[in-house]
Amino acid sequence: MRRLLYFLPLVICLGIALFFYRGLDLNPRDLPSALINKPAPEFSLPALPGRDIQRADDGLARTDLTTGKPVVVNVWASWCIPCVAEHPLVDRLAKREGVTVHGINYRDRPDAAAAWLKRLGDPYAKVGKDESGRVSIDWGVYGVPETYVIDGNGVILYRHAGALSPEILERKILPLVKGAG
Amino acid sequence: MRSRKRQRLWIACIGLILLGAATALALNAFEDNLVFFHGPSDIAAGKVEQGRLIRIGGLVQENSVNKIANTAKIEFRITDGVAATPVVFEGILPDLFREGQGVVANGRLDANGLFTASEILAKHDENYMPPEVVEALKKSGQWKMGGGAAPNAAGGNS
Amino acid sequence: MIAEIGHFALIAAFLLAGLQATVPLYGAHKGDRGMMELARSTAVGQFALVLLAFAALVNAFVTSDFSVLNVAQNSHSTKPMLYKISGAWGNHEGSLLLWALILSLFGAMVACFGRNLPPSLRARTLAIQGMIALGFLAFMLFTSNPFDRILAPPSDGAGLNPLLQDPGLAFHPPFLYFGYVGLSISFSFAVAALIEGKVDAAWARWVRPWTLAAWCGLTVGIGLGSWWAYYELGWGGFWFWDPVENASFMPWLAATALLHSAIVVEKRDALKSWTILLAIVAFSMSLLGTFLVRSGVLTSVHAFATDPERGVFILALLAVTVGGSLTLFAIRAPKLQTTGVFQPISREGALLLNNLFLSAAAATVLLGTLYPLFLDVLDAGKVSVGPPFFNATFGPLMAPVLGAMVIGPFLSWKRADFRQAMQKLWLGVAAAVTAIVLVLILSGVEGILPAVGVGAAVWIICGTLLELADRVKLARVPLTESWRRARRTPRAAYGMTVAHLGVGLVVAGVLGATVFKTESIQNMKPGDTVDVAGYTFTLDRVERLQGPNYQAERGVFRISTDGEQFATVNAERRAYPVEGDTTTEAGIHTTWVADLYAVIGEGSPTAGWTTRIYHNPLVPWIWLGTIVMSLGGVISLTDRRLRIGAPSRRRAPTGGSSSPAPAE
Questions:
Q1: How many structural domains compose chain C?
Q2: CA of A10: which chain C residue's CA is closest?
Q3: What is the CATH number of domain A30-180?
Q4: Which of A12, A79, A156 to mutate to test the interface with B (most CBs of B within 10 A)?
Q5: 3-state secondary structure of C301
Q6: pLDDT computed for residue B125 by the predictor
Q7: How many Cβ atoms from other residues are within 10 Å of residue B53's Cβ?
């Protein structure tokens, strides 16, 4: 009995370590989004001028999210360094996986944003220009990049704050996009 | 031998009493002093107790910041995209406080739904910037110094 | 080129640490002298190599070599020289290198000064030290190499976080790490003792000076950090129970307990497994602090950039070090023989009480710090645990410690007479009661707690001085006799007296800053005045000025009392264009009895500026007290008996803390 007492510190320490291990995956700075499973906010943004590939981009609006097909909305800016890092993943999502990805260009200079897309590639179907950042506030955007998955009826299924990672893409975003279709 | 046993008993007793007292203190303190985090929509839904110290987080609503003339009081609204909570704060705002930026406030809710903040914490950076990203960028040669600030960030509030 | 030399030195140090961690251990097992001696040369060699690496990094910062990623990310050519140098450890990689440097410095010190240690104990201690170094060097080399180059060097750096560009914070990490890492020696000694299966008075005497040295560093480091927060964050507070602050405070509490329990091991041959456990826990708390600051599991104002991969690595390091040593403890500690027997009312009883309460306090701080994480992991909601929790738990737990620390030195070892001790202390009791009554009558502060707090401060200061007076028999024997006794009193006893006085000063300062402060927030235009605690503050003017790497808006306040101006203070808001950040510099005028503290916020000539004015009585005593406390530690360190390598003098029966004057 007394010998067991000497194991107590070890047990406590292991218990705490277990919590730490689980805690590493959590981000304490993450603020819970109030918009999950709610319809995306009403908005309409003008198109980002000067894009290389002139698709039928007449700006991004709420109606683009209710086409019956799930879409991904990616909030980015040219001054944002993590956006550069996640860009290949956004590219892959659009080109390899065939998912419609719309961009919201957050608090940016249009010329800088267009040049950025020219340099790194342009995976977006439509890019809305949110120079004031007002629409992004309605979306609850805390910083860039942020990525949202919207079902075909304009309901937000998932939000990821921060740069995408291959795991997030494969484990969270793709199942949602495929599942909601 | 006998006194050694007695000594152990003493230590064990004191230790147990102390442990009990410390646990009681901690639990009691948790009861009163845990600060829960809520969003404006929780407040709108009436989930938040009045008068209790809570922490709310969200974005500072555009065009909502108003410095009351000749006082150190500031009014603004915190929104999470669904609901907005009016906040009043007396004091010096953190350097990174701006409209449209993330903010966390400690304070209490009154009967009229007004949140009186005792402390305002601005989120430090507009960038989500985990270092492994920096690492990856450095490897690809795209690391640029001095980037990472919104061009109109210096625009100031209101 | 120089950066590569640094990198290479780190690799060599890593290999040498591997040698140091294994061969001496085997040698000690086999009783092979040569293998055991290897511990000393490798420890010194490892220190030389890490020092070389550190010099290489400082050189890169001083010469602004922006082809080194770390420099480019954390320095800038326009930065003042002091901050170029301190920038070397103002970031994750550099601070780790500083950590490794101090770790190897302590190892080398044991190797050089530990001549009179038994060879096997020394070999094992250094081997454990080598294992810790191995872990940290691996961490650095595999996840956080400070010498990484950039493919395309930028023309200038990104700058150092302006909050960190401050003299207080430039020297805060070296002291703090000296304390954190110094505890690794106590840890290594404890683990080595577990391997040897022997803990005796000699062991306690060897461990104490190292713990004491680490404790002094930790005390100064915490004091500097708190001082920095006080004048730089501009909230008028000095301690915020922030996770990072707690991370440095928990090892301090454990180290304080360890210092006291080691005395019991030395004097009474008791509390052995408890002391071993404390030595392990104290260093574990240091590692925990490193983990909390660098893994991002908790939010904090001054956390480093976070990275899950690094978090996993440190967690693994933590699990191996702490888990391994505690497993060894669970197996070996029950075998440690205790011969001492003791009574509750005795010196050792008082020290035990101190230990129990300090540990309980450390445990509640740990609980409060980790609780948000626990709830988050269990998905039970996002909470934060603020100062009210810590005040409600920590305060009551410290109260008995403050009471006992005065009575303890009056009690004799083995068996003491409580009544007799209190009789000697009647003056202290009277002073404390008088102070309580005076505060209750004179000050407008509500409640009995502030008064009790003041009483505690008076009690500690008076009681500690009374103990010294009693020791030299002041006023009971002729002055010359007292003087002779004072000269014969060991330095360790003076060390205790000074350190305990420091605690009294800190308690007084903390009370002044929390309970008796006055605060005023208002909007001011130049020419406006505001009265705070009998002082009139006039905002004289607000001017713009250009610093070396910032622009500032400076509010000049004139302070007068009874119409007579006696001071001006400058409160600044600084904007750092390179880093895109602003900082607040509080304007402080100190009278040593109180601080007058002014902060200026955003504003304009038409709308006026938001200002915050504080009158913080006794606040300077907090830092004075921490300095006095560590001074006490240093005085104690110079005691002949504790001096490393000095033969123990059996003739002087006076304790590490103190003991009653020699038989009358």
A1: 2
A2: C326
A3: 3.40.30.10
A4: A79
A5: coil
A6: 46
A7: 18
